[in-house]
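User: Structure with 2-acetamido-2-deoxy-beta-D-glucopyranose, tokens only please.
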Amino acid sequence: MSILRVSLIFLVSSFALQLVSSQICNKDDSATLLKLKRAFNNPPNLDSWSASTSCCWFWQGVSCDDNGRVTWAAISASNISGPIPPEIGDLPELRRLEIDVNPNLTGPIPASITKLQHLERLILAENSISGTIPEFLCNMTSLNYIDLRSNKLYGHIPSCFRGSVYYIDFSSNRLSGHIPASLMNGYGGNDTFLNLANNRLTGRIPRSFDNVNFYNINLSGNRLGGDASVLLGEAKFSTQIDVSSNRLSFDLSNVTYPEFLNELIISRNRIRGSINEQITELQGLGVLDMSYNRLCGPIPSGLWMRPYPSSTFEHNKCLCGTPLPPCT
Ligand SMILES: *[C@@H]1O[C@H](CO)[C@@H](O)[C@H](O)[C@H]1NC(C)=O
Ligand SMILES: *[C@@H]1O[C@H](CO)[C@@H](O)[C@H](O)[C@H]1NC(C)=O
Ligand SMILES: *[C@@H]1O[C@H](CO)[C@@H](O)[C@H](O)[C@H]1NC(C)=O
Ligand SMILES: *[C@@H]1O[C@H](CO)[C@@H](O)[C@H](O)[C@H]1NC(C)=O
Ligand SMILES: *[C@@H]1O[C@H](CO)[C@@H](O)[C@H](O)[C@H]1NC(C)=O
Ligand SMILES: *[C@@H]1O[C@H](CO)[C@@H](O)[C@H](O)[C@H]1NC(C)=O
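Assistant:
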């Protein structure tokens, strides 16, 4: 009886102890976060970040591992301004950093983040961060997801991203130069995401992209020339391809389309030739835009072809047939 009671008490108290210990926020991590809050001028959105509570349980946008080390920190839409302070590098167990939608946040990506050796996701989207995309990001071996969309980054894309990085969004910045051939090469998975839309990129789409399984690739709104057929072909697994508003110039006649495509946007280029019949085999193709090119010949019909609006095919050289006027 008493043995049972004792062991029951032991069980309950060790459970409570575990609960309590998992509530304790590491002192160094909590001090670092409070320094960040102060550097950002104590924004109202971070009111919950208070020295009197555990950062692991009560602080908005923060979570911890079982040892009370901070693994996730987010400061979103908080009207913070100025540069990201160097203290950001002092959260040694951080896996995911998210500082986004702060249009008055300026300055470069701080070098101190290279100290975050376990960082997997870096999300700095929709701020006003400037400078170049630093090469030191390539030295962060755990990093596999990088979202720097909608900032004021300029210069070339470093040619050092390879290996484990499977998600890159650098869209809506001021990046220039060529797309590096090594970009995302070496990652073998099917889930590769690349968005470089709305920059000032020039040159050609690298031949090496033939070896990358993009499930989503968006190169829209740049100054890219040459051939995009390296992204196409029925053996690919891509579901979304957008290369619109570039200067692409190649013959589409013999190009086939990835079987699982649901969005294909190639409008506003200088693409010539005809549309391959194989496109009628795509069951999932919901969004299609081939307008403003130099295509010619009959629009394939039948099988899975949807009733696309005429705007899908308008402003080409001599495409004809439904939904455009009949071929003569
Ligand atoms: C950015 O700063 C300006 C001027 O200091 C301020 O008026 C504006 O509210 C800030 N933007 C946001 C989104 O808070
Ligand atoms: C953002 O912060 C600035 C200065 O810190 C302040 O003047 C402005 O009112 C704030 N805007 C919003 C939307 O909170
Ligand atoms: C990357 O790491 C290597 C080896 O540790 C070092 O020599 C190099 O300077 C680092 N590069 C950057 C850009 O930090
Ligand atoms: C990619 O996905 C397809 C279909 O889901 C699968 O058959 C194929 O093995 C995958 N390839 C890789 C490299 O994961
Ligand atoms: C490609 O990116 C641009 C800019 O962000 C966006 O407007 C467009 O919808 C994207 N395309 C697809 C297919 O998602
Ligand atoms: C398409 O393929 C056919 C047959 O292989 C070939 O005769 C033709 O020249 C090719 N057209 C283009 C534009 O590559």
